[in-house]
Amino acid sequence: MNSSIEQSFSQSFSDKNDSAMSHDSQYDSMHYQNLQIFVNRSFQLSNIKFFGFDMDHTLAEYKTDTFDLLTFSLAIERLIEIGYPEDIKNFKYDPNFAVRGLWYDKLYGNLLKVDPYGNILICSHGFKILKKQDLHRFYPNKFINYDPSRISVQHTLYEHPESYLLACITLVFQMEICLFHTKQCTKTFVHQSNINMSQIRDNNAKSFLLTNSDYNYANKIMSYLLDEIEPNRNWRSYFDYIVVDAHKPLFFAEGTMLKEINIETYGKNIGSHAGPLLTNRVYSGGNVEVFSKLINSHGKDVLYVGDHIFGDIIKSKKVRAWHTFLIVPELSKELSIYTEKNDLYTQMNHLNDELSFMLINFDSSSKDCPDISNIKEKIQSLIHQIDMSYSYFGSTFRTGSQQTYFASQVTRYADIYSSTCLNLLHYPFFYLFKAAPQLQKMSQNSEEFTYTPSIRVNDGDEKSTSQPIKRETSHRVFVNRSLQMSKIKFFGFDMDYTLALYKSPQYEILAFNLVIEQLLKLGYPEEIRNFVYDPTFPVRGLWYDKLYGNLLKVDAYGNILVCVHGFKFLHGSDLHKCYPNKYLNFDESRVYSLNTLFNLPEIYLIACMINYFTTSPLYQHQSTGVSCGDVFVSFKAIFQDIRSAVDYVHCHGDLKQKTIENMEEYVVKDHKRLATLFNRMHENKTKVFLLTNSGFEYTDKIMSFLLNDTGRDWKSYFDYIVVDAIKPLFFAEGTTLKEVDINTGLKQFGSHAGPLKSHQVYSGGNSDVFSKLIGSRGKDVLYVGDHIFGDIIKSKKERAWRTFLVIPELEQELATWHDKRSIFTEIEKLDKILAEKLIDFDSSSKNCPNISSIKHQIQRCIHEMDMSYGLIGSLFRSGSRQTHFASQVTRYADIYA
């Protein structure tokens, strides 16, 4: 179980889910599960001022057995009209075929179920599941990169019939379905549920309807759903604002012209509507920016409820920072099957324990692998049994233990999710939806220094089979996605901060001082020479807001966790002046991401510089910069100067030369273990390559220092060597591949087109050319690097390489986590007390219990824990929330250490 969705499922069945109501004895287990709302991110309903609803498959729940069949039949009729053979009339719709989130490959006509990265889990051509050679003929790496010109994603429930029809005819098509609505037709295809919208207004919140349907259709559907609840009350009176023809996701970008609709004639008024939005009126089109201004909403005070993962959830989250509630009607069936097959999951977990136990005593010197084929076959058999319990394509959320693309989007973008929006009725409007803490693998397992597997024996008991086995924390590799080392044919390495670890803080102090010297040459005041580097301040993964001059620690979605202006931490009104929603969308023109260890001195220098200019009596502090007389210096300009100075010092200045002159002072040397690692890789008949952005002269000096004491030239440890790679450009168009003369360091004329020679050095190139020349294919490469974007994200997304992220800060993070684990345990206890205080309330409850004392205690614990790491806190979290950097580690690094 490795996704938050799977964790939510398993927790709900054992009554341990803090994120939703606990088990009530008046309901049986399945009924209780269907009432649940699952939580990915915490928020409090009392902070919501606007409840927004989509209509189709959200307020209007369609009866899938009849509605999908109608859609399928009408699509066939349309295809026959445009020239398809009459024989397609014989197609019979199978509701157990499709799941949401499939990709349709328009080139080869295949329906694909993929994981979050494009790795193919299931491939169906028509109704033929492609395996092995057939699959490799289309996708040599069992991988496809998302390209909207080639891939169509089946995001919505509307597309289930389309997926099945694609399988029937294996041909790309576009279809429009015309539905003719009568009272009888609506009853046949739409569930009539007791939607009590008045409770939202009773809690002083506003509600709006935002649908892509036109007014004619919306009026018929909503009248059917709501007009009979209260006599003489029109459905429009339940909403404060109504927008039809929204054209989501376009609504969350430039949108269309906002017009008022005449509810008697259904016609649209001439011109754009510019006045306030009126109650009981209907509007068409518009865009989210205009809409938000007219209703006076601010990002996180909106909870939007919809079923379309892209059009409703992702876009509203990324563009406006709305809280999001995803409707997943399939969830009821998924929960039911999960419950029924729970014993199979238990068996699979025991087999995985047994597998881990068989391998745990081995290291890289081990030659003979124990026979694990029998256990693996049993695991595969269980996975197949579980998958076949769902549908033709298996579960919407997983294949075996691998998360699907759809499931990863739910986890990332849906704050809460449930099978129906009506489950809100079972929660009070002051309810605190509390997510389980977002922990890295190293935090989840940091105290598991011993491993004692439990193996199921015939009598059903669990017995320990061995004495505990110790593994030192500093020697551990943490796993986000399963990886079998025997399948790796190429081990690739970055050099800086990967093979060559620079000593901290000595190296950062050197870089910091050299950048200051460069800034003095640019005319900055002499006083900056007094700046002294403080290693306790910076952490990587911060964003710099060039507009306001703030360093920001953000979560995966741009929600601001920490904001520092110089050395002043902004809170309350100061923070809201710059960021009314405590949110910032990533925009490269405004935001610079400080992701690397090389950025640490830069981060501290930015803080020093902003602090100097904003506190100096010589300068007047303004919102976007400082002024002195007629001179204005923007925070963006200050950053650009620092950035150019840093680049100069690294590329043309003295940093490399001073490092080379005193390598004992600045570079960690561990030549014996490094040589042993490379030797063992070669003994296991794998190839090893070096792929670094550093030039040959610097690389030669550093690698000689690291390895030449072993009695061999450093180049002999690598099969292929590429310098001047210019990652991340290397994973796109790259540069010209040239051979380097290792005696002179000069690059040879022209582009190198022949095979790559062992122990020879090459410069530039790109990943496509490089992969062809060495004969590698995607997943048979494990690339090891420290740069989350240049090394890990790009190699994963563009080449499907397996990825190993090096995080030197991890040792200190683990030590602090271990020392302060008791604080986190206290937070968990307080969270449980908080959940218990709210458990017996539903949406009709008016009086919120007093929870301020508990929330204050939680905040105190979070602050104490954060301060244990440094001034800006942990690299991986702020309180129980993951940082942007941590979320990228989880998404893209298969393993890390």
TrEMBL record:
<keyword id="KW-0378">Hydrolase</keyword>
<dbReference type="GO" id="GO:0008253">
    <property type="term" value="F:5'-nucleotidase activity"/>
</dbReference>
<feature type="compositionally biased region" description="Low complexity">
    <location>
        <begin position="1"/>
        <end position="14"/>
    </location>
</feature>
<dbReference type="InterPro" id="IPR008380">
    <property type="entry name" value="HAD-SF_hydro_IG_5-nucl"/>
</dbReference>
<protein>
    <submittedName>
        <fullName>Cytosolic purine 5-nucleotidase isoform X4</fullName>
    </submittedName>
</protein>
<keyword id="KW-0460">Magnesium</keyword>
<dbReference type="GO" id="GO:0046872">
    <property type="term" value="F:metal ion binding"/>
</dbReference>
<comment type="similarity">
    <text>Belongs to the 5'(3')-deoxyribonucleotidase family.</text>
</comment>
<feature type="region of interest" description="Disordered">
    <location>
        <begin position="1"/>
        <end position="24"/>
    </location>
</feature>
<dbReference type="Pfam" id="PF05761">
    <property type="entry name" value="5_nucleotid"/>
</dbReference>
<dbReference type="InterPro" id="IPR036412">
    <property type="entry name" value="HAD-like_sf"/>
</dbReference>
<keyword id="KW-0479">Metal-binding</keyword>
<dbReference type="InterPro" id="IPR023214">
    <property type="entry name" value="HAD_sf"/>
</dbReference>
<dbReference type="GO" id="GO:0046037">
    <property type="term" value="P:GMP metabolic process"/>
</dbReference>
